[in-house]
């Protein structure tokens, strides 16, 4: 049991301490931004008492996704690169649709 605990502690050190650098910090900042989109969406839905998707959701998605994309490129992770890269297209497209809708509403008033 002591060997198992020792191995686990060594693994924790290797994962969370030994490889700690600026890229890991960027990865955690990116993940925090990406997570905030869910918090924003949840709070907006709770206030409205229905499911809503606020614009901030898409901005947090874009910022977090872009930072995670950069992080994935640096880590050379093809799965993560593909996933975040394609997600960025969706976030940008949604922001363009929102901007176009607002322009049309402003022109119609």
TrEMBL record:
It comes from the Bacteria. It comes from Daeguia caeni. Pfam families: LAB_N. Residues 26-97 form the Lipid A biosynthesis N-terminal domain. The keyword Transmembrane helix applies. InterPro entries: Lipid_A_biosynth_N (IPR011499), UCP028440_lipidA_biosyn (IPR014546). This is Lipid-A-disaccharide synthase N-terminal domain-containing protein. Keywords: Membrane, Transmembrane, Transmembrane helix. The chain crosses the membrane at residues 20-40, 52-73, 79-99.
